[in-house]
């Protein structure tokens, strides 16, 4: 078990869900324990947290996090943190990834495979059920992971079809593991795990399903997937939320062509009008992902594929964290270029001038330049990349 897992659970319990500040924290701190130790004063100086965030960070204890982990282990599940190599590559890329996923099964089933979400209404028609089953079967038979939300209706039909076809599927819950929700689908969830798939959630064990948990959950369904298929959706269907999130995440959105004999697909029609790719079978999806090859997490896909929106994955370390990787790329580009103060922005120049006065700590720089801490830290990162300043323990800096 990773030593820092308690701190990630603490962070998720403190900041709750759909919090975009997780990536800022990862950029500013090499280790989450360092962020915990930094304490309230430094958290406030970062300038990115609301008063509610600060209260959550102050009032959530490590003992609470340990209790969450203990309950997780009692349920036979694992807590997979965002810095863990098992954490899904695609999900790291969204703006608001969870800090922790609670997992039953094998979340690494997503490695090196194309993943497609299949979503739709709970009150599906015979046509909707039939299309969900056929599309999921086609995808599963072609080694594509089917992702869905485990609910009755389209979701369950997609999961069941993938399992029956011998494929792998990932079920994303809108509640915590062990919660009394979807008890009627308990056997399905067991089958998903038994066949090498996974049941996952960002909610701590026992968290009940609530109206707000499902919209938040939907970003994970789309975030785990290269593309999202809406099989059948009404005007206010939660599936439309998932489709919109997929679009925002620069993932593909497919919609099943409405049946001429069924008029209850206003959501499908709306998506078509918005430019979603219309499909009539799983084969249409296979054709869409047939021109190039995606490489992910150092594994080659069995199915040649590339997103039509060019969400292109490259052969990379499975520990990829966007902020750190981007810095590395910048450093490589800087290798043959000489930078000096004239190349800096106004903010970077102000920070550089303060550091040029002598070794100084971040807090003092913030006070002198009158900028939010996160912008000062961003400027310092740039100055380090340009090899104009050097950092020392205790968050001290001096010019080189």
Shape: elongated
Which percent band covers the strand fraction? 5-15%
Main pleated-sheet profile: 9 strands, mixed
Class by helix and strand content?
alpha/beta
Mean pLDDT value: 82
Supply the number of helical segments: 17
Q: Assign a percent range to the helix content.
A: 40-55%
List the helices and strands and how they pair.
Blueprint: H1 5-15, H2 21-28, H3 32-46, H4 51-59, H5 62-74, E1 78-81, H6 89-92, E2 100-105, E3 115-120, H7 126-141, E4 145-148, H8 154-164, E5 169-172, H9 186-194, E6 198-201, H10 213-223, E7 227-232, H11 238-248, E8 252-256, H12 266-273, E9 277-279, H13 282-288, E10 295-296, E11 299-300, H14 322-334, H15 346-355, E12 360-361, H16 362-369, H17 373-385, E13 389-392, E14 396-399
Parallel strand pairs: 3-4, 3-7, 4-5, 5-6, 7-8, 8-9
Antiparallel strand pairs: 1-2, 2-6, 10-11, 12-14, 13-14
Helix pairs in contact: 1-4, 1-5, 7-8, 7-13, 10-11, 15-17
How would you explain this protein's 3D organization?
The protein has 400 residues and is an alpha/beta fold. It is built from 17 helices and 14 strands. The strands form three sheets. Strands 1-2-6-5-4-3-7-8-9 form a nine-stranded mixed sheet, with helices on both faces. Helix 1 packs across helix 5, helix 7 runs parallel beside helix 8 and helix 10 packs across helix 11. The protein is elongated, with a radius of gyration of 23 Å.
Q: What descriptive keywords fit this protein?
A:
400 residues, 14 strands, alpha/beta, three-stranded antiparallel β-sheet, 17 helices, single chain, nine-stranded mixed β-sheet, elongated
């Amino acid at each position: 078990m990773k030593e820092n897992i308690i701190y990630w659970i603490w962070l998720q319990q403190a900041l709750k869900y759909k919090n975009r500040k997780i990536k800022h924290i990862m950029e500013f701190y090499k280790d989450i324990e360092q962020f915990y130790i930094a304490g309230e004063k430094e958290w406030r100086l970062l300038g990115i947290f609301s008063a509610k965030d600060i209260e959550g960070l102050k009032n959530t204890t490590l003992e609470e996090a340990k209790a969450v982990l203990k309950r997780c282990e009692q349920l036979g599940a694992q807590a997979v943190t965002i810095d863990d190599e098992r954490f899904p590559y695609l999900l790291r890329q969204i703006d608001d990834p969870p800090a922790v996923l609670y997992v039953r099964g094998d979340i690494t089933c997503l490695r090196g495979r194309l993943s497609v979400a299949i979503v739709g209404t709970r009150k599906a028609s015979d046509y909707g059920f039939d299309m969900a089953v056929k599309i999921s079967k086609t995808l599963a038979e072609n080694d594509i992971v089917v992702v869905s939300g485990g609910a009755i209706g389209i979701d369950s039909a997609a999961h069941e079809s993938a399992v029956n076809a011998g494929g792998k599927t990932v079920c994303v819950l809108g509640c915590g593991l062990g919660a009394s929700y979807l008890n009627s689908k308990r056997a399905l969830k067991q089958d998903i795990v038994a066949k090498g798939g996974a049941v996952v959630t960002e909610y701590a064990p026992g968290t009940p399903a609530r109206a707000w948990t499902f919209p938040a959950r939907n970003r994970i369904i789309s975030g785990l997937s290269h593309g999202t298929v809406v099989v059948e959706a009404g005007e206010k269907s939660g599936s439309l939320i998932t489709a919109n999130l997929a679009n925002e995440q620069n993932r593909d959105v497919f919609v099943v062509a409405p049946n001429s004999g069924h008029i209850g697909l206003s959501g499908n029609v709306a998506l078509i009008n918005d430019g979603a790719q219309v499909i009539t079978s799983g084969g249409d999806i296979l054709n869409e992902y047939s021109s190039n090859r995606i490489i992910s997490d150092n594994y080659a896909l069995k199915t040649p594929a590339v997103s039509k929106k060019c969400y292109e994955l490259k052969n990379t370390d499975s520990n990829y964290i966007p902020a750190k990787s981007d810095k590395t790329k910048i450093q490589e580009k800087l290798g043959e270029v000489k930078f000096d103060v004239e190349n800096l922005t106004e903010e970077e120049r102000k920070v550089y001038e303060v550091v040029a006065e002598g070794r100084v700590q971040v807090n003092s720089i913030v006070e002198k330049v009158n900028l939010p801490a996160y912008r000062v830290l961003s400027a310092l990162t740039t100055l380090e990349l340009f090899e104009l300043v050097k950092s020392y323990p205790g968050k001290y800096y001096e010019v080189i």
